[in-house]
Amino acid sequence: MTALFALATSLLWGLADFGGGLLTRRTPALTVVVVSQSVAVAVLGVIVAATGAWSEAGARLWFAVAAGLVGPVAMLSFYKALALGPMGVVSPLGSLGVAVPVGVGLALGERPGVPQFAGILVAVAGVVLAGGPQVRGAPVQRQAVLLTLLAAFGFGAVMALIAEASTTLTGLFLALFVQRVTNVVAGGLALYVSVRRGGPALAPGGFPWRSLPALAFVGLADVAANGLYATAARIGPVTVAAVLASLYPVVTTVAARGLLGERLRAVQTAGAGLALVGSVLLATG
């Protein structure tokens, strides 16, 4: 079940990244973050009220608060990078954040078996190659790489924090709600500061009403992915869950190829194949 939940996490994160990257090409990234996460807050608020999850409140919620503070920085950096460079190049670099939760798992005493260790190496190498990473080129490309590396560390930190934020299903709902409320507050303050400094709050055409369904999907897919990852990390080894959950760049790359016509280079195709092999090794190890 760990592999199933983690792979579902990858699918949702990959689709959310694809949608977020498209939206930031016509709407300011901060607005995308705030609006999409506000939708998630509304939905989670209903779930928390319906399940009585408030009874699970405790000291662990500080992990959710920390994840909520780190998350907007990571998402903003990543969306800006996606707007600057091809998704198939930027997205795989974001998966390097897997080093954070894997490191936490190893520090807590997890020791993957030989097949799993091989799967970790193969999967991470495949994810990076799936984007045919280009660290040389125009200044825009270098800026996109730096933003992506910042986002990668943030994503890895969020994965590690949210996995520690709850021990029960209702507690997970509450933790995700607190995380998203913190996201909206932090992102809203950043948007306010940006507007005060002359930055745009909306696209030239005003509030993106037509994009609201896409914004809602991005927010809900992201929060569902967080919940699935937390579940996967709780019921199985964090090292396995983290690596499988970090295969989302392959989804983003394939979506960009299918919907935007971005060409896959030979190294990207090989990388996607390696990622698949690595996931099989992890799931069967």
Automatic annotation (TrEMBL):
This protein's GO CC annotations: membrane
Residues spanning the membrane: 32-54, 61-79, 114-132, 144-163, 169-193, 214-232, 238-259
Keywords: Membrane, Transmembrane, Transmembrane helix
Entries under InterPro entries matching the protein: EamA_dom (IPR000620), EmrE-like (IPR037185)
Stretches assigned to the EamA domain: 3-130, 144-283
Name of one Pfam family that matches: EamA
SUPFAM superfamilies with a match to the protein in the record: Multidrug resistance efflux transporter EmrE
Family (UniProt): Belongs to the EamA transporter family.
UniProt name for this protein: EamA domain-containing protein
Organism lineage: Bacteria, Bacillati, Actinomycetota, Actinomycetes, Kitasatosporales
